[in-house]
Amino acid sequence: MILPYIHDKTFKSKNYTSNHLTQAEYDDCVFINCDFSESYISNISFLECEFIDCNFSMVKCKGTSFKDVVFNNCKLVGFPFHDCNPFLMSITFTKSQLHLASFYNLQLKNTTFKACKLQQTDFTNANLNGSTFDNCNLDQTIFDNTILEKVDFSTSYNLTINPNSNRIKNARFSKENALGLLHVFQINID
Predict the structure, then answer these.
(1) Which residues of 40-75 are buried (b: 16+ CB within 10 A; e: fewer)?
(2) Cα 65 to Cα 87: distance, rounded to the nearest angstrom
(3) CA-CA distance, 73 to 89, in Å (whole number)?
(4) What's the rounded Cα separation, in Å, for the pair 188 and 17?
């Protein structure tokens, strides 16, 4: 099926909860203050798009493509990124809420998360090699069998990572958040 092509268009203050976004290929589009919560955006392609102040809570996105996409100040609670098309997936997050989101088994090399809240977000089996978590809240974030080599965690907080079940070679930590690497050993540090 060939999708309609929509290029260089701005969508502002649209509500897609009942009137779903048209299934298409969106190239270089901007979405501002749009509500996608609990909607279906499955099999849509986003290329070089930006989402600003949008709500994607509990969205359904089977087969959706995100290539060079930026989420700025968006609410992505429970977003199942693992259901998206993984081919050439490239996303950046700034000041976004990603509580309970899932990045299970995805290739996310060099991904940037800046000033994001990632409580209980799942990165199991993901490859985050070279990524940056800049000033992010990682409370109860799940890293299990995750490639975290060369990841910069130095400004993030509430971090708990089991070094025995993740690859963390050359990852960067601050002195404060490095204590989150010892949590698994159940030792007390005063």
Answers:
(1) bbeebbbbebbbbbbbbbebebeebbbbebbbbbbb
(2) 8
(3) 20
(4) 48
Q: Of 119, 125, 87, whose CA–CA distance to 103 is shortest?
A: 125
Number of independent structural domains in the chain: 1
For residue 159, tell me if it sits in a domain. Answer: yes
- What phi and psi values does residue 21 have, to the nearest 5 degrees? -60, 135
* E-assigned strand segments in the chain: 5-7, 10-12, 25-27, 30-32, 45-47, 50-52, 65-67, 69-72, 91-94, 112-114, 132-134
> What is the CATH number for 167?
2.160.20.80
Q: Does a structural domain hold residue 152?
A: yes
Question: What's the domain range around 163?
Answer: 103-185
The predicted pLDDT at position 180 comes to 65
In this structure, of 73-77, 100-104, 169-173, the range with the lowest mean pLDDT score is: 169-173
Say which residue, 17 or 180, is predicted with more confidence: 17
The amino acid at residue 23 is: Q
User: What is the Cα 56 distance to its own chain's centre?
Assistant: 12
CB 126 within 8 A of CB 146: yes
Burial 86-101 (b: 16+ CB within 10 A, else e): eeebbbbbbebbbbbb
State pLDDT tens for residues 11-56: 999 999 988 899 999 999 999 999 999 999 999 999 999 999 999 9
Confidence of residue 98 (pLDDT cuts 50, 70, 90): very high
